[in-house]
Amino acid sequence: MEKNKSVEEYIERKTEWKDALELLRSIMLSTEMKETIKWGSPVYTVNGKNVVGLAAFKSYVGIWFYQGVFLSDKEKLLINAQEGKTKGLRQWRFIAKDEIHRDVVLKYVKEAIQNQKDNKEILPEKSKVIAMPLELNILLTSNKDLEKSFKELTPFKQKEYIEYISNAKRETTRSTRLKKITSMILEGIGLNDKYR
Hints:
It comes from Aquimarina aggregata. This is YdhG-like domain-containing protein. It is a single chain. By secondary structure, the protein is α+β, with helices and mostly antiparallel strands. The chain has two domains: about 5-115, Aspartate Aminotransferase, domain 1 (Alpha-Beta Complex); about 135-195, no CATH class. Helix content is about 40%, strand content about 15%. It is elongated, with a radius of gyration of 21 Å.
């Protein structure tokens, strides 16, 4: 994941979509939203809540509406990129700058801002509790330093490790994964910290 420090830096790195991103950014900045960088991309917020995000890929540039499920979408322009997984997020993709019509985009953005002010949001579901895999439990109880380090990790990081071991189908895979994560746990590193 790119570690952009500013929206300008993000746009400069996306040379083929620079003009489209600058146009979309000017639309976002014409509203009351605050601009920031989250997850390496431009995000626009109201009262600290994510409303809109911008992103550019090889084949398109897009707008993400974090609670887009509540938009009326009369023009039928929004898609759910992960049907069955994504509950609130909706995308609007453009394959050319001339597809971006300022007035239409602004209408959608203003509706998204109002929805945020009206507290319309789908909250993430609590994920199911996963049982501690036997192999991981044995490893932790046999090594007190490792057990102490594991308990000092955040619940989220603990869950990542538990799922990582649980998802391995074969015993040899579980064994290999346990060897891999032991030093990471001792160092207080989360399984996916390098991607954050």
